[in-house]
Amino acid sequence: MNHTDHVREGIDLLDTRIPDPDLAALRSGGSGIRRRRRTLQTVGAAAAVAVLAVPLLTFLGGNAPATDGPPVAGAPAAPLPAPAAFTDSGFGDGMAAAVAAAFPGAAQTDEELGDRWVWRDHTNLDHAVGSPPRWATLFAWNQYYDVAGVDLSVIARRESPSPVIDPASYGYCRDGLFVVEQACRTWEVDGRTVVLHDGTQARGQQPDVWLRTVDVYGAEGTESMVALTSVSVVGVGDTWVEAQGRMPAVDDLAALALDPRLILPEPDRYPREFPPNRPQG
Amino acid sequence: MTDVDHDRDFDAFVRSTWRSLRQGAFALTGNTADAEDLLQGVLANAYARWPRLRRDDPVAYVRRALVNRYIDTWRRSNVVREVSRAEPPERTSHDALDRFDDRDDLATLLAALSPRERTVVVMRHYLDLSERDVADSLGCSVGTVKSTCSRALHRLRVPVTARPEEQP
Fold this sequence. Notes:
The complex is a heterodimer.
Chain A: H1 3-12, H2 23-43, H3 46-60, H4 90-102, E1 107-114, E2 116-119, E3 125-128, E4 140-147, E5 150-159, E6 180-189, E7 192-201, E8 209-220, E9 226-236, H5 240-244, H6 250-257
Antiparallel strand pairs in A: 1-4, 2-3, 4-5, 5-9, 6-7, 7-8, 8-9
Chain B: H1 3-29, H2 32-48, H3 50-53, H4 58-84, H5 94-99, H6 106-112, H7 115-125, H8 131-138, H9 142-156
Helix pairs in contact in B: 1-2, 1-4, 1-7, 2-4, 4-7, 7-9, 8-9
């Protein structure tokens, strides 16, 4: 008997006094996580409202999502040094290192990449990724964390500019982006625009779920695409005051969102294929 | 696959892996309450991403998630401890070894190991994760994994013999 057998036999004999799994409770807990994650994905960034719609409209028009968006008037003029294009998973390691530096003890719970579009339902598109990822068209890299019981999402992606986030037309703090928004403000840091959406609730969101989101928009790149970094946390509480008491501070989230390790490099090209299998509505 | 099918699939997965996950979680944490919390968190997360996870290798994912979540927990507690005392948070097990000389007391001996040692032993010798996996999870070298594992097994008083694949 080698030492693996010794250890295995010994651990198998441990009296854990742990009852059989409550499958319903596990599924319920998992559904809650999934719901909060979906909330982060769809309303974490104000831009998401537009981002999901713009590619769909351009697809329906038979055009690529990347080329038809209007330019972002008033976007910062001075481009940051572009990070080197990626060919492997190293960018994700940098994201994780940035999060670990900002929030020691943060535990990563999920990761999603986007190198193509797929239909989520009849009218909405989601990004998806192949296996292995198609690095040449990678335009989204999201990571999700648990920070002492608070859900944190870190989104790095390249966005098609959209009238909804065009500050000349509407402003980043435009009314109507959210059903509820306690505060919104913008400021500039090193040629990048920082937008805080604080205490937001989107349509259809549970009334006790609140978001604090810091978006950072970079300069336009190829095909007028913009680098977006979005850092969001979810707080649960009957009131915004109650919920925000459990959230990381705005300054800490902004510092993370401004970390250059979260600037997604430009892909070689943006995905242009029309997604097949559009569900019928 | 419908949601009902996914649920059925997930339930079957939990039932089939429950025993090893339960024993592994208890070996890591050393107590029922923490092990239950660990299992609940990891399996709820697994359910949240089940439609995608089931297509990959859910057993490997859940085993790694179990250990990584545990590591996050003790690292957080280490931060607190290291503020209040200068020396590393390693715990000596000599007293425990003096008192316990029977492998039936493995739970007590495991509890006397440092969290890092306990993690290495459980990952390598119970959850069948590779030395590379252990090194990646702990953020150390493979050599450190080997030496930590050897020290931990000595503390557990498990006779150290080469695994078949490690024999020349």
